[in-house]
Specification:
The protein has 118 residues and is of the alpha+beta class. The protein has a single domain, classed as Alpha-Beta Plaits (2-Layer Sandwich). It is 30% helix and 31% strand. α1 runs antiparallel to α2.
Length: 118
């Protein structure tokens, strides 16, 4: 692999734990309040929401993908953290990463494409 002169894409992780009763409330805050703001930002490239069940708690990890400029998404990201805190009573952890590699198919066997969030 040859070095690239391009700046790497970025990923912001927001992760938190919720009980079963608050899981849907937190995900609704993401789709209702945060994603519309992210979609208005030119450097937003997509997101992935993950769920891991640990006994009675659920861990939700949301990865948002960006072309280099995380600063422009800072207000929307803070709003998401505030929405999770208000809806689920839990304080999310935020971390930023450089993306070293990724591959995403545009359609899968369920018919979800890039503009059809699950």
């Amino acid at each position: 692999m040859e070095p690239s002169n391009q700046r790497p894409m970025k990923c912001r992780e927001v992760s938190f734990f919720v009980d079963d009763a608050h899981r849907e409330v937190a995900l609704e805050a993401l789709t209702r309040d945060v994603l519309p703001k992210f979609l208005q930002l030119p450097n937003f490239r997509g997101y992935v929401a993950l769920l891991a069940v640990h006994q009675v708690r659920h861990e939700i990890i949301v990865l948002s993908l960006w072309d280099d400029d995380l600063e422009a998404s800072e207000d929307a990201s803070k709003a998401f953290v505030g929405a999770v805190l208000g809806a689920a009573g839990t304080n999310p952890i935020r971390r930023n990463f450089d993306i070293l590699g990724a591959m995403v198919r545009t359609e899968d066997r369920f018919g979800r494409g890039p503009d059809k969030p699950t």
